[in-house]
Amino acid sequence: MPVADGPTIRTAHARHVALPVQIAQAAPAEQQADAPSSVTEAPAAPTAAPAAHEAAREDENVPIYAPERIVDAQVRVAAQPDFPDGARERGEHGTSIVLVTIDPKGNVVSAAVAASSGFPALDRAAITAARASQFVAPKINGRPATETYRLVYDFSP
């Protein structure tokens, strides 16, 4: 969606660095480590099933922490970056790629330039716009998650 005489924002595909299955399997192992051990006999099968079902339900409520998982940005409201006047006057232009980590509530946890436009003023404008944007809360397999979104900001004269 080009804006006349200004920067544009677009999302782009990125490869997934971690699979949701790897992250999802880590949570039960941590919870099992915290569970008290017992030397008594295991309960009979009919009573074991509800306990296993209850543990699985608890795991579903635990948010998945996968900031290394880079995916397309799910933007609710995209803040357009301001093209700095000084940069425009100097004829600076380029593309800044920003990675923003979003928590399970849709809040920006961090934002950093992954690929610079070559001009610090443009990169700062891209970071400011990324932080001002509103994002859809990430989910992995229907569970709340922390993920990293990739945003591409094109600054053209």
Q: Mean of the pLDDT scores?
A: 73
Structural class: alpha+beta
Shape: elongated
Regarding CATH, which class of the domain at 8-21 and 63-155? Alpha Beta
Q: From the alpha carbons, calculate the radius of gyration and give it in angstroms.
A: 22 Å
Number of helices, counting only DSSP H or I runs of 4 residues or more: 4
Keywords:
157 residues, alpha+beta, 6-stranded mixed sheet, 4 helices
Characterise the protein shown here.
- By secondary structure, the chain is an alpha+beta fold.
- It has a domain at 8-21 and 63-155: TonB (TolA/TonB C-terminal domain, 2-Layer Sandwich), CATH 3.30.2420.10.
- 32% of the residues lie in helices and 32% in strands.
- The chain is built from four helices and eight strands; from the N terminus they run βααββαββαβββ.
- Strands 1, 2, 4, 5, 7 and 8 form a six-stranded mixed sheet that branches. It has a two-stranded antiparallel ribbon with strand order 3-6.
- The chain is elongated and about 55 Å long.
- The two termini are 15 Å apart.
- Mean pLDDT is 73; it is low at 11-56.
Topology:
Blueprint: E1 8-11, H1 20-34, H2 45-61, E2 64-72, E3 75-77, H3 85-89, E4 94-102, E5 108-115, H4 120-132, E6 134-135, E7 139-140, E8 143-155
Parallel strand pairs: 2-8
Antiparallel strand pairs: 1-8, 3-6, 4-5, 4-8, 7-8
Structure in a nutshell:
The protein has 157 residues and is α+β, with helices and mostly antiparallel strands. It is 32% helix and 32% strand. It contains four helices and eight strands.
